Amino acid sequence: MRKRFSLGVILLLAFILAACGQDATEENGTNGSVEMIQAAVIETAPSDESPESVEEPAVSDKEESEPSAEEEIIMKAEFDFETRTVTLNSGYEIPINGLGTYSLHGEECISSVKSALSNGVRLIDTASAYGNEEEVGQAVREAIDEGIIRRGDVFVTTKIYPGDEMKNPAQSIQACIDRLDIGYVDLMLLHHPDPNDLEAYKVMEQFVKEGKIRSIGLSNWYVEELTEFLPQVETVPALIQNEIHPYYQENEVIPYIQDLGIVVQGWYPLGGRGHTAELFGDPVITEIAEKHGASCAQVILRWNLQKGVVVIPGSSNPDHIRENTELYHFSLTEDEMERINALDRGEKHDWY
Ligand code: NAD
Q1: Is the full-model pTM beyond 0.90?
Q2: Interatomic CA distance for residues 157 and 217, integer angstroms
Q3: Ligand 1 atom 13 nearest Cα
Q4: How far apart are CA 344 and CA 15, in angstroms?
Q5: pLDDT tens-digit profile of 63-102?
Q6: Which are the catalytic amino acids?
C-alpha cells in the first residue's frame, strides 16, 4: 500500500502550526489544528509509489530527522471511509477491511484469497502459525500475474509465534518472508508476548531498516503488557491486533491503544468459529440488521469500523467474502452503536 506521508513532516508541521496557528484556530472557530495538518499533508501526498522495490522501501529522507520534545504530538489515526484505509504511524496506508486466513489451507486458501482480491479486498492476514503463508503468497502472485492487482495494491500481514520462532527471530522472520515470496512484507507482528519478545521486536526493527518489512506491530498485547513493553522499544508499534467482537469489546484497551497513535485491528470480529450463530441470532443485532437491510455479519463489521477497529473476517465462502466487503452503503446511528456496546459480556472466545 502507498506511503501517504512522512511522520517527520507531520510532526514538524504540527509543531509550526501549534506555535503560530492560535489565531487561525480562533478565527475558524475550530480547535482541530492536528486534523487540519493531517488534511493538508494528505493533499500533498505522493500520487504513486514504487511498490515492487524491496531496495527502495518508500522511506523518505525527512523521516530520519528526530522530532524534538515539543514536536512529539501523538495523532490518533482516523479511518477514511472514502478510501477505506487508515494511515499507520509508519506512514503506510492499511485497508480497514480485509480477509483473515486462519484455518484456510491448500487450494481452498488460494481460491479464497484470490476471491477476496477479485472482490476488492486489499488486506490479507496470515501468520507463520497458520501454516498457509505459501498459499497466501501464491494467491497474491497469481493475482498479480492475472492483472487483478499490483503488489503495491495489497497489504499482507504475517506474524511470528512465541517459543522456538521468537528464540531465533531473524531466522523466523526471514522464513516468513521466504514462504510468502512477495518481496517485502507490509506488516509483521509478534503473535503473542514471549520471554524473548523484546529481542524479536528489535530484530523486526532491523528488518524494517533493511526494507524487507514496512511496518511492525503486536498481537495479544493488552494494557498491562503494553505499559511494560512500550518504554523499552524505539519504534511505536504501527498496529495491535486483539480479540474484539460485541461479546468481548475491550472498551478500555481500544482507546488506550488508539491514543498512542496505534491502529487497532480485531481478530474474531464475528466472534470466531463456533460462536457466530449466537452473535448472528442476537436480537439487538438482528433488529439493527433488518432496519438497514444488511446482514448481521455486516452490522457487526460496521460496528467495528465505526469504533475505529480494522476488521479481518475469515471465510472460504465467496458470497460471504464479498458480503464482508459491502460495509460502506449504510452506517449505524449513535443509538445503534450504544445498543451494540451494551452487549459486552467480557466473554473471550479463545484463551489468549
Ligand atoms: P471470525 O470471527 O472472522 O469468524 C469466522 C467465521 O464466520 C467462519 O465460520 C466463517 O465461515 C463465518 N463467516 C464469515 N463471514 C460470514 C458471513 N458474511 N456470513 C456468515 N458467516 C460468516 O473468525 P476467524 O476467521 O477465526 O478470525 C478472523 C481472523 O483473525 C483469522 O482468520 C485470523 O487471520 C485472525 N486471528 C488472529 C488471532 C491472533 O491471535 N492474532 C487469533 C485468531 C484469529
Answers
A1: no
A2: 10
A3: 315
A4: 39
A5: 445 555 555 678 889 999 999 999 999 999 999 999 999 9
A6: 130
